[in-house]
Predict the structure of Group II intron maturase-specific domain-containing protein.
Amino acid sequence: MDKKRRTIEEIAKEINPVLGGIINCYHKFQKSDIRNVWQQLNKRPLKWVKKGKRVL
């Protein structure tokens, strides 16, 4: 990723297709563990926002 400042919405638009593919693939094989994957994916952006929206 480049060093320009971006909003959380811009970052979400960029990574959403990739994460969607990962989740779809993972869900097919590990249905019982999908909750853990979602929790981890949700923690990272929240942690970033709480730290003051540093450049990613």
Summary: Residues 16 and 22 are 10 Å apart (CA to CA). The helical segments are 8-29, 34-50. The chain has a mean pLDDT of 75. Residues 8-29 form the longest helix (22 residues).
